[in-house]
Amino acid sequence: MSQRGFTLVEMAMVFVLIGFLVGGGLFALAPVIDKARINQTNATLDQVENALELFAIRYSRLPCPADGSLANTDPNYGLEQPVGGATTCTITGATDAKAVIPWKTLGIDESYSVDAWATRLSYWPSGSVTGSTTLTTGTPLTHTGSTFPTSSGTYMTVVDVVSLKSITPLPPPATTSGDQAAYVLVSHGKSRWYGYSKNGVQAVAQISSPDKACNSTPNGCALGTGLTPSVPAAFASGGPVGAYPPNSNKYFDDIIRWRSPAMIIQLCGSGSCGNS
């Protein structure tokens, strides 16, 4: 007795059904993958912050940024600029968009210089952004005999993208805005916009995103100029805002870390960073 095989129509229906099942499974899996990547990025940021703390303990300063646009064949690849940090950081002002974590200077593996989306972590120490008082780059992180500086100066401002308020409040008795991040670390999120790849190429934003742009070029950021009193440079934090893929200029998926000068000095412990 002969056996009847599947017709072309039946085979097509099977393939369509398999496609629906696979597509639905991938759609359900996407949020799980996103969450895992966010967790991985936060774990990487934890390691980088630990390395910055150890660097501050050893050298009583924070390192300058590395140049994210350099190829891996460049002798300065992964090193703070200038090497040794003896003078003012050279990745500053007009070039601050390419400021990334100097993994070689910190003595950590290059894998810690990128987030879970394979984008370099952007990094700015106080003093490398216009309008901030030099805490690093030639001026030691020193406040003799005190774990909480009585005059911490104007460092860097971080603004929440939802409330539009500064999340870097001033310690008393300061009376001006603009405190109090000694450094800012940025993962540019799933969109990767404005971040640098390991090949030294900056990701271009597909639509205008003013808040994400603040974490590439903080000078003149509208989040800072909109504060009272205004500040000349600011970074964006908070969210996430909007769904991926982005269809609004309010979209924001960056992951931000920062620490105040007081916290760094306190973490340094006795005998380091100017503590007596």
CA gyration radius, whole angstroms: 23 Å
Secondary structure: helix percent: 25-40%
Task: Give the tally of β-strands.
Answer: 7
Distance between the termini: 96 Å
- Count of helical regions: 5
The general outline is elongated
Order of helices and strands: HEEHEEEHHEEH
Low-confidence stretches: 131-153, 171-179
Number of individual domains: 1
Sequence of strands across the biggest β-sheet: 3-5-7
pLDDT averaged residue by residue = 80
Helix and strand content put the structural class at alpha+beta
Largest sheet, in brief, is: 3 strands, antiparallel
Query: Strand-residue fraction?
Result: 5-15%
Give a verbal description of the structure.
The chain has helices at residues 8-59, 103-106, 210-214, 222-225, 261-268; strands at residues 66-67, 99-100, 122-125, 157-160, 183-187, 234-237, 255-259. α1 crosses α5. It is elongated and about 85 Å long. It is of the alpha+beta class. The strands form three sheets. Strands 3-5-7 form a three-stranded antiparallel sheet. Strands 1-2 form a two-stranded antiparallel sheet. It has a two-stranded parallel ribbon with strand order 4-6. It is built from five helices and seven strands; from the N terminus they run αββαβββααββα. The chain has one domain.
